[in-house]
Amino acid sequence: MAQRLPVLYNKKPCYDIVFQQSFDGLWEELQELGASEKKLCIVTDSRVDELYGAQVAELLEGKCCKIVKYAFPAGEENKNLETVKDVYRYLIEEGFDRKDMLLALGGGVTGDLTGFVAATYLRGIDFVQIPTTLLAQVDSSIGGKTGVDFDSYKNMVGAFKMPRLVYMNLSVLKTLEERQFYSGFAEVMKSALIKDALFYEWLIENMYEICEREPATLEEMVIRTCSIKKMVVEKDPTEQGDRALLNLGHTIGHAIEKAKNFELYHGECVALGTVAAAYISWKKEMLSMEEFYEIRDMFVPFYLPISVDDIDPQEILKLTKSDKKMEAGKIKFILLKKIGKAVIDRTVTDDEILAAIEEINFSEEDAHE
Ligand SMILES: NC(=O)c1ccc[n+]([C@@H]2O[C@H](COP(=O)([O-])OP(=O)(O)OC[C@H]3O[C@@H](n4cnc5c(N)ncnc54)[C@H](O)[C@@H]3O)[C@@H](O)[C@H]2O)c1
Ligand SMILES: O=C(O)C(=O)C[C@@H](O)[C@H](O)[C@H](O)COP(=O)(O)O
Ligand SMILES: [Zn+2]
Predict the structure, then answer these.
(1) Parallel, antiparallel or unpaired: strands 145-150 and 3-9
(2) Nearest 5°: phi and psi at 74?
(3) What ipTM goes with this model?
(4) Pairwise CA distance, residues 254 & 257, whole Å
């Protein structure tokens, strides 16, 4: 029996998150959304297409009006308006109208991009999230933040657009590359750090099983992380307030992602940004020194970086201040009071940011320690 978490939007039931171990239950779920009468377009990236594209298409073949597929080249560098335009053109050629539906099959790049196409094509068309990376399962497929990068600014153009369904086949996590798996784990850690100290303890206790990708452990981990995200986005769907807590590690993280030209993955940059945010929290006497080191060192067994080489602190500062989180000239920073409790802070100074960047700046001395 599939596990299911309903998500509310403006206090009304909006969509379900369905947890399965295969794609077998997908058609049944789509049928509930009237898919028999619709054209469906699977939007995916080249890598996921190779792995799962045919399997998902075959499953839906002959059941809906028409099933087509659009695959774009994998990678963050393609999460942009050019790819969006390519998808629009394909949908027009295939005669998609407002009653039809898009299926985002892939990681966060595919989900963000397809969701944005769904928000804007013909002023809005339904879409379903079928997340296939750990990151997309625990974070990006839920909550309706969609969008693309613009001129290398992260997520600069976007829309809130709720999916009609989030269908997770947890078994696909076994084909993820190590680095991608641990990149997704950074968002798991983030969720525990901002909201759930007990879950954080559980992650430590289950470290071995998580790294081994033991299916029952992964299932519990994904469901618990999704429950945190559900709780946050239900209270504040359009980030007027506390949803910003989900941005822990992202303020400096997005700056590093851009500065490194997407060489480092999103979750890796979130890990670095979280260490920096925890450092600022310690220096502001919000977080104890012990907790700072505890948080920093917790990333290490999950192969996540806690320092980065070849960065220019002044450039990172500049990029941090050009992210979307500026309000009336002040950066909205997410800091930690303790493990399991984050707060929004608007008092972080340039010097505090620079000191935090220095803390994560890899130096020759670190190499000899
Ligand atoms: N909308 C949100 O709330 C939200 C939340 C977090 C992150 N994001 C965004 O998500 C993006 C990162 O997502 P991501 O880390 O999933 O990256 P991604 O979508 O680029 O996927 C990473 C790589 O894994 C491959 N892949 C996907 N599923 C696979 C599988 N099962 N087996 C093997 N390979 C597979 C992909 O082809 C790709 O090469 C960033 O753009 C970030 O900004 C959005
Ligand atoms: O869902 C949210 O809200 C988040 O902030 C989740 C983040 O993990 C995600 O990376 C998001 O895309 C960041 O949003 P942005 O508005 O800072 O671009
Ligand atoms: Zn993120």
Answers:
(1) unpaired
(2) -65, 150
(3) 0.99
(4) 5
Residue whose CA lies nearest to ligand 1 atom number 39: 74
- As given in the structure block, the two tokens for residue 77 are 């560098």
On whether 110 is known to bind a ligand per the annotation, the reply is yes
Q: Are 131 and 107 in contact (CB under 8 A)?
A: yes
Fold classified for 182-367: Dehydroquinate synthase-like, alpha domain (1.20.1090)
Instruction: Please give the distance, rounded to the nearest whole angstrom, from the Cα atom of residue 137 to the centre of ligand 1.
Output: 9
Give the ligand 2 atom nearest the CA of 143.
1
Let me know if domain 3-175 sits in CATH 3.30.70.100.
no
Percent of the chain exceeding pLDDT 90 equals 94
Residues touching ligand 2 (Cβ under 6 Å) are 139, 143, 145, 154-155, 187, 239, 243, 246-247, 250, 324
Given this model, what pLDDT does residue 337 score? 98
Measured in degrees and rounded to the nearest 5, phi and psi for residue 297 equal -75, -15
pLDDT value for 319: 93
Question: CB-based burial of residue 5 (10 Å sphere; 0-12 exposed, 13-18 middle, 19+ buried)?
Answer: middle
For ligand 2, atom 16, the nearest C-alpha belongs to 155
- Strand 145-150 to strand 165-169: parallel, antiparallel, or no bridges (unpaired)? unpaired
Low-confidence ranges of the chain (pLDDT < 70): 1, 364-369
**SS3 state at 189:** helix
Q: What is the pLDDT of residue 42?
A: 98
Return d(Cα 353, Cα 96) in angstroms, integer: 48
Q: For residue 365, what pLDDT is reported?
A: 62
Query: Cα of 247 to ligand 2 centre, how many Å?
Result: 6
Distance CA 206, CA 213 (A): 10
Q: Where are the domains of the chain?
A: 3-175, 182-367
| Residue in this structure with the two tokens 């308006």, named with its chain if needed | 81
- Give the atom of ligand 1 at the shortest distance from the alpha carbon of 265: 15
C-alpha pair distances (Å), 232 with each of 7, 212, 351: 11, 29, 31
